[in-house]
Write a structure and sequence with these properties.
This protein is an alpha/beta fold and about 525 residues long. Helix content is about 30%, strand content about 25%. The protein has three domains: about 5-235, P-loop containing nucleotide triphosphate hydrolases (Rossmann fold, 3-Layer(aba) Sandwich), CATH 3.40.50.300; about 255-330 and about 420-515, 3-Layer(aba) Sandwich (Rossmann fold); about 350-415, no CATH class.
Length: about 525
């Protein structure tokens, strides 16, 4: 097969950090190449060089034998390169339709072909199972819905080379299967794909070849035929990796009770509808669902960011009529938010400032209303060591951390206080195998210590490995809870898509009630 893309001896430095170290790779026509590596290994940097967001210090890129101008995304797009970004590159103040067509029509054209664009977008949404309202403002969408827009935006441009960075993070198993079927058809017609994912089963299912980056260098290359997830995980991190699983434990008293709660969405989308939930000490309750079905509202309710329009919220036996973030944190809720960049940390602040952000008034951090910098940094250094946050030190800007280390920082802040309830919203999204195993181990340690854990995730493997009981959220309603040891991924996937395995399709008014 002829090579449609070549990267030759790409080197990129950020100060003393060598993000890419003389990396070379080629991509054949009709090939799906997996790029695998730990968080911070240099994968995203390499793809940003390919797409023109960064300029390499050394090396060059060729497309169809022609040199690609460095630092020019418009040239990459013109050469037929499309990119589905892990961290979104969308205009929040524009609609979905405007984001998808932005840059595809001449500025000198006196009018837009919006009807034709809408028709094409609707057809693509239906074909790929990526449902999203074309008229919705992107700033009002959930994280998962924004990722769907990123996928549609790239496919809309008829790319011949497609870079996909964690493209299935928000899809059900059935939707992932459908996307893979579509990608296979496109590959048969000559599309070439660079597929970045930490879901090793997906890499084995869709990819032809795997290249592994470690600390900026290519350390392994192998065909997927004959490989398994254990081989790939060990190649990625340099040693064997085993994800922990929950051992049986007797549940304790309820730490969270949600009774008949309804909550209108502030943006006019899906809210919560007569939700009943109970999380007990020594247990993990997993909530599955396609993004945009009320997970945001559920997390905001428990975090103290919103109040129920109907029903009640009880934490540790205290019914909260006016919940606030300060109140729920003080009561003993550890919060791990869905979007670590936008909600979990403030990137421009130092690591120590982010670490103490929920304990500003606590001794010994605060003395007479002033922050004791020495005490704050000493505590941060202790948590950096305990939670293995790999960073230059407590004074470094948090935005410089890799995704995995940023998540460890959030875990350290939430779990070091030994909360009685842990709200873990997509805790391992976008993390590598080593980081996933670490995060899962910390959540299970909190469960063993006596905390209750509410796990909100779209990853069914994660859900079933960690949970004691599971439920599905669909159109703002939560199903009855099920035993995680007996329910199947297929059953959950059908329920996430709005189909009850026993009764068939379900609508927003008959999605069930939780036990």
């Amino acid at each position: 097969m002829s090579a449609v893309l070549r990267l030759e001896n790409i080197t990129k430095r950020f100060g003393s950090l060598v993000a890419n170290d003389s990396v070379s790779l080629s991509l054949a026509r009709g090939e799906v190449l997996a790029l695998l590596g730990e968080n911070g290994a240099g994968k995203t940097t390499l793809m940003n060089i390919l797409f023109g967001h960064y300029v390499a210090d050394e090396g060059h890129v060729e497309v169809e034998g022609e040199a690609l101008p460095p630092g020019a995304p418009h040239a990459a797009i013109a050469a037929g390169i499309g990119m589905v970004h892990q961290h979104f590159t969308l205009a929040d103040n524009l609609t979905v339709l405007d984001n998808v067509v932005l840059g595809t029509e001449s500025l000198w054209r006196p009018w837009q072909s919006r009807a034709a664009a809408r028709s094409r977008l609707d057809a693509m949404s239906s074909e790929y199972g990526l449902t999203v309202d074309p008229d919705a403002r992107v700033g009002d969408l959930s994280v998962g819905e924004r990722q769907r827009v990123e996928i549609l935006k790239a496919l809309y441009r008829d790319a011949r080379i497609l870079i996909m960075d964690e493209p299935t993070a928000v899809l059900t198993p059935q939707e992932t299967e459908g996307l893979f079927d579509t990608l296979r058809r496109l590959v048969e017609r000559g599309l070439s794909i660079i597929f970045i994912s930490h879901k090793l089963n997906e890499i084995l299912a869709i990819c032809d070849r795997v290249m592994v980056l470690r600390r900026g260098k290519i350390v392994h290359e192998m065909p997927t035929e004959g490989a398994d997830r254990h081989i790939l995980a060990e190649a990625m991190v340099g040693h064997a990796v085993t994800r922990p699983k929950a051992d049986p434990m007797a549940p304790g008293d309820a730490v969270l009770s949600i009774r008949d709660v309804s909550l209108r969405s502030a943006t006019g989308g899906v809210g919560l509808n007569a939700v009943n939930l109970q999380v007990r000490a020594h247990e993990v309750l997993g909530i599955a669902g396609v993004s945009g079905n009320g997970q945001v509202q559920l997390a905001e309710l428990i975090s103290g960011l919103s109040r129920p329009d109907e029903g009640s919220l009880t934490l540790f036996g205290e019914t909260l009529t006016h919940p606030t973030p300060a109140k729920v944190v003080k009561l003993g809720v550890g919060r791990i938010p869905e979007d670590r960049h936008a909600e979990g940390v403030i990137g421009e602040m130092s690591i120590w400032e982010n670490m103490i952000s929920e304990d500003l008034r606590a001794s010994p951090i605060s003395r007479h209303g002033l922050i004791d910098h020495s005490a704050a940094k000493a505590r941060t250094e202790a948590q950096i060591e305990r939670f293995d946050v790999r960073c230059p030190g407590p004074d470094a800007e948090t935005r410089l951390l890799s995704g995995g280390n940023m998540q460890k920082l959030i875990l350290a802040r939430a779990l070091s206080r030994e909360p009685g309830l842990v709200l873990a919203n997509q805790p391992a999204r976008g993390l590598d195998e080593g980081a996933i195993a670490y995060v899962h181990g910390q959540l299970l340690a909190a469960r063993e210590r006596g905390a209750g854990v509410l796990l909100i995730t779209e990853d069914l493997e994660e859900l079933l490995a960690l949970s004691d009981r599971v439920a599905v959220i669909y159109h703002g309603r939560v199903s009855a809870t099920m035993d995680a040891k007996t329910v199947s991924p297929r059953e959950l996937g059908l329920m996430m898509a709005g189909h009850n395995p026993q009764t068939g399709p379900q609508g927003p008014d008959n999605a069930g009630a939780a036990a």
